[in-house]
Each structure stands twice: as structure tokens, then as C-alpha cells.
Amino acid sequence: MAVIEVDRLHKVYGTKVAVDDVSFTVDEGEIFGILGPNGAGKTTTAECISGLRRPDGGTVRVLGRDPIRDRAETTTTVGVQLQHSELQPNLRVREALELFSSFYPRPADWRELVDVLGLEGQLGARFAKLSGGQQQRLSIALALIGNPKIAILDELTTGLDPVARRDTWDLIDGIRDRGVTILLITHFMAEAEHLCDRVAVIDAGRVAALDSPAALTAELDIKQRIRFVPSEPVDESDLLALPNVDSVNRHGDEFLVIGSSEALSEVTALLAKQSIIAHRLRVEQPSLDDAFIAITEGAEARNAKGRDDR
Fold this sequence. Notes:
By secondary structure, the chain is α/β, with parallel strands linked by helices. It is about 35% helix and about 30% strand.
């Protein structure tokens, strides 16, 4: 069942079109990602969904309600962690949790959230003294303190080190396990690939692609990259003659072979036949990062063609 419905959403700031005819739905229990370059309209879309901005066109429904007209209901059912969330520097963690709890008729037990999010040792700490990861954990706690059915998390792991980012991913998985539907805005492709059931790629205010990360990668037919250092000399022409190999490049002793998904078995069979060992063999599978680049470059080319046609 769809808990978020966005239909032909349009938002303008002055003469700039920030969101232009965006449509998608988010199903109950999903982690749904919104991806896009800086300035693509990701945050504006999320703000319209949460009721923080009024659309200039189209419709938004959250749990069947208009987030602007039914603001009170939206506030109690949607938790929001904004990209640039800041608290008063001297506000202590316990004070923030107690304050935000007072805003809701049936708040979550903030002590349980503190335990789940690993903030037990920071209850007396001032916001300004928290690390980036701790501030993000507190932001998550404040977004969940109203017992929301939907959580909107905007650029949650920006500025975090790799360890803190991975820990935050585990927390997001845990939030979904609590029955919360998550709308995740991010520009980290690995984050979306790891967490999201489906993603919408927004570019220049429009949805350029919408599907699961795996499907978006597979649909674009992005080539496989095979890197290795042969134990004995290899004739490049033998590699190029393989049916599923598109190109062969050499960088010092290392070979880079690019081809379809069947290229790996062909290359390894050829090397085995010639009694050659592939040292430091690495196979780089197509990723969501590759798909994102292909999608946004394709959208940019179509937009440029449209301007030329006019």
C-alpha cells in the first residue's frame, strides 16, 4: 500500500523551476531513496512531502492526507531529519529529548531511543560538544520521538567518517524493522545501493529513472571491468578476439579488460589454456554509481537537445 503519493509535483522559486512534474509513490515499509546531483530538487521534493513547503502544482498525499491542509496530522505521523539540522549549542541531549517529547500526544520512550541509538553516555553533553556522528544519532532520535509512521532523512551521513556512516546504515535498517517507512535523500550511491528497496533519480527537477538499484544497474548494460597482472606475457590480440570482450588496455604490467558479464569466464579460460596465472585479479561489477552517471548524463543530453529544438 502506498503511504506517500507524489503526482506531477511542481515547485518554483522566482524564475527557477526547482521541481518540474515529479511523480512517484512510496510503499509501506519501504526504504525509498531520492538521488540526484546538487540542486536537482531532492530536498525541495522532501520538504513538500513533509509539509514544510507548499507545492505550486501537482498533488502530494501522505497517508492519504494533504500535508499542507492536514498539517497537524502530518506533524504527528511524519518525522523529519533535515539536511542542516542544528540545535542551540548549549542545549543538552537530555533537554532536547525531553523538549521534543513534549510536542507530541503519544511520544516514544526517549530512553529506549537513547539505548537503541547508543547515546547513553551523552545525555549530559551539550549539542556543540557532540561529534558529527553523535549529532546525527540525536537527529534520528528527534525524528523518531513522535512515534512516526514515516521518517524523512535528508543527507543523513554527510560529513561522517566511513565507520560512523556504516553504523548509521545499521541504525536505518533497525528503524525500518520498527515498522517505519523511510524516505532517504542522499547523494552517496553506496548508501542507496546498501539501504534502498527502490530509488528515484531526480535531475533538473524531473524523475530521470525509478527502480531498484539492481534493476537500474542491469538495465543500462554497463560493462564489466577485469584487472589482472599475468604471470607470463599475454598477446592482447588473443584477448580482443574473445566474443564478449570489447576492449583491452595495458597500464604497465596490469591489463584492463572491459566486456559483458560473460567476459570473465572467457578471459580466465584463455589464461588457463596458456598456463598463465592472473595475479591480483579484480573484477569490478557495474555499480549504482555507474548507473547514476549514465542516467544523469543522458538526462542532461536530452535537456540540451530540447533547448536546441526550441
